[in-house]
Amino acid sequence: MSAPSKPVPLTTVESTETSDSGAQTLTLSVGPQHSGSGHMRLIVEVDGDIIVNVAPDPGYVHRGIEKIIELRNIIKSIPVIERPSIIDASNLNHAWVRSIEEIQGVEVPLRGQYLRTLLNEMNRIMSHLYWLSIYGVFLGHTTMFMWPLGDRELFIDLAEKLTGARITYSYLVPGGVRRDLPPGFAEEAVKRTEYFEKRLKEYDRIFFNNPLFTSRAKGIGVLSKEKAIELGCTGPTLRGSGVDADLRKDEPYAAYPELSFEVSTRPDGDSFSRAMVHMDEMRESCKIIRQIVKKIPTGPIRRKAPIVLPRGVAYGRVESARGECSFYLIGEGGDKPYRARYITGSYRNMAAIPAVLIGNRLADMPTAWWSIDYWPVEADR
Amino acid sequence: MSLSHEREDDLVQKLKEAFPTDIKETNIIRRGRLEVTVAPEKIKEVAVYLRDKLSFDHPNGVSAVDYNRENRFEIVYHISSIRTKEMRNLVLDLKESVPRNAPKVGSLVSVWSGVENYERESFEMFGIQFDGHPRLEKLFLTDNWDGPPPLRKDIRFPTD
């Protein structure tokens, strides 16, 4: 095959500019096709191969969920609310029911609280595993794509036993949860978490202690503690910068006050730190799941809650897999909210994308960016 | 409920002492949830005071609410503290009201740089202008969107 007579135009190049210092920079459009970007676009300006500027361009998967919720009954909104992050559905669901219950003044029975926490922690593992598989494949490590997605089935099956659904459960309802534990669940959960912890050691061996990964992740995409706080970052992104903030400890909700676990932090703020926070959290979640099935009290799983949202305001928040997920909910006495402001972990961490990328090489972009665990659908809502 | 709100009362007290005329209204919703309404022209001063003197270093988000029956928008900054560990379970809603027919307020990006995206969203979804914002452009909406700001209350979906 003969070479083309003219150079093939690089369609992703938007323009070349000369900066004040005389250096020529190139503006690239990364995405919105899933080129390792997720369903969003980053407008990246490079000088040579150093990134000098980044502007996130989200909105490709925006669904107007805040408007949809305003027009629906608070119960009918539950499946809609899960959609932005189906891999972390129950945590988003929890933020919603928690804010409703704050306005209604409904107390959830303790067994219901334990069941909520159980599904939340299973979801955290599932979400982190999904993140890890994508992270692995971005870095060219095919095994780290296959293994986490395979092991994720362990928890998907477990969630199916509990809720009847594999991914989007609509399990949490105002006042409690929909279903009680099925027979034999505790033994199955212990077996699966113990097996999974062994697998995590293999992950360490093949990926996290592998120079192929560490040499690409350590010192790359550094986000300082001060910057992370000022930008309003949350979740593993904030904890990877050495801040031990976790709503499960700072504002304990559901069954978390009765469970013992560590908040995972790493001091360096680089891609490696953020990745390791995810790994640590999966280990802690396994411990929490085993504690729950051992300690879960008997009693009702649900208390009757009204289907209307009384006049009032709430800011209900939970620690989802990607950080704080919150609803600013205003009720006016009907069965629909007057306003339901929906702020997710990915939306908050969007502010960190330029901060971690600027100054790095273009080739380090996947390592730095995906370590934030930014989920475009969750950010766009 | 008989739970005491000492910490919240204390914050309200400090704010009222520092800004005797500019704090229009305060409301303790429940433990750890506090609303403070200020005059739009003073919000930046109050924000700087909250950040520098009361340790509110962390923006959790910004909400805009359309009260079309009262002909006003409300802009709510949800802020909290990370550095002061015992205050991490508290979210303060710093609120301001603007008339619906002239929705223009000062941006707080210079106080908390993290509010940039939220203010942009309030701009495109409600049509609120933030003076001094470094990049007041559409965020989620498509570039060719020329309809009205879609989250306003008087905008209806065909299925509504």
Instruction: Using a beta-carbon cutoff below 8 angstroms, give the protein chain pair with the largest interface and the number of residues from each chain.
Output: A-B, 36 and 40 residues
Span of the ends, CA to CA of chain B: 39 Å
Number of domains of chain A: 2
What's the architecture of the largest domain in chain A, going by CATH?
Orthogonal Bundle
Ranges of chain B with pLDDT <50 over ≥5 residues?
Answer: none
Describe this structure in words.
The complex is a heterodimer of chains A (381) and B (160). Chain A has 2 domains: 13-57, no CATH class; 65-380, Cytochrome-c3 Hydrogenase, chain B, CATH 1.10.645. Helices cover 45% and strands 15% of the residues of chain A. Chain A has 15 helices and 9 strands. In chain A, strand 8 and strand 9 (337-343) form a beta hairpin. The termini of chain A are far apart. The relative contact order of chain A is 0.18. The model of chain A is unreliable at 1-11 (pLDDT under 50). Chain B has 160 residues and is of the alpha/beta class. Helix content of chain B is 21%, strand content 30%. Chain B has helices at 6-18, 43-52, 116-126; strands spanning 23-30, 33-38, 58-67, 72-80, 91-99, 104-106, 129-131. In chain B, strands 1-2-5-4-3 form a 5-stranded mixed beta sheet, with helices on one face. The longest helix of chain B has 13 residues, at 6-18. The N and C termini of chain B lie far apart (39 Å). The model of chain B has no long low-confidence stretch (mean pLDDT 88). The interface between A and B is large, with 36 and 40 residues.
